[in-house]
Design a protein that fits this description.
Order of helices and strands: EEHEHEHEHEHEEEEEEEHH
Number of helices: 7
Structural class: alpha/beta
Distance between the termini: 42 Å
Strand content: 15-25%
Number of strands: 13
Mean pLDDT: 88
Amino acid sequence: MLFHNGVEFADWIAPIDVPGSKGIPELARRGQLRMFSKEVKNHAVIERITLESFDNDVAPTLISMTAELAPPSETKAPVAASRKSAALITRTLIVGAGSSHDFNRWFLEKDSKTLATLDQVKVDTTAQPDDVGKFIDELDVLYLSNNAPFTNAANRKRIMDFADSGKGLLLVHPALWYNWNDWPEYNRVLCGGGSRGHDPLNEFEVTVTEPNHPVMRGVPAKFKIRDELYWFQSDTTGTPIKVLATAHSPSKNKDFPMVFIVEHPKARVVGIALGHDGAAHELPAYQQLLQNAFKWTAGKDPSVKP
């Protein structure tokens, strides 16, 4: 909502009348205070209200804000719609931080825009891994792309508990590395393995091996991408993985998983080894893959099979 000088408000220093608000001189010892209201037309949960000036350094000053409900006969349908809308919203947090990647530009900004185009999705982002503790209780999907550590042991446990509760995890590119020697359960249980190396940044071809899986729906059977080809190895003692797409490494003369399902007994987990920079994140095939993976991990795809 935009409030305009000369409509809803006016200079405080003198009693200047404007058509969009009403003066309340009995509350002003000097200058003026004015009162106005705006109808909220959309029926959904208001999670945050931000007051800010428009393109200048003038701070908005309010002494009170109230909410008025319509009569009960008018609110039955909106309240029901509000509850239904809130129930349908899928919440995710993208964690992106560390080294060797532009996390803010590609994971936090670009990928959040790619996911936000999906219906009824709320995307939060953070460059502080331990912020996960502030969000995780409200999340449906946790998207990890960080190689910076979770320094709080309690947050590591909450991530494992999050998986055990049957929620969704998206583990993308840097998060599929063997990043944390002091947290082996992450790679063994949640990733089903990890990578300790990759081919130099170059163009290679990705081949879809499970075209009928919902995560690969609409993704070309073969597509080229300029990226780091991760040498992801499954952990024979860890959670099994189901490979959905591969790429051939010239340096290793071997095929490696690029997209896979981690067959966790409770959680819905997708690993995407792609995503070094904009050459991947701006690629339509990658964006389709990311959206599919998100819907699958969230359990929103009608053909979901955990």
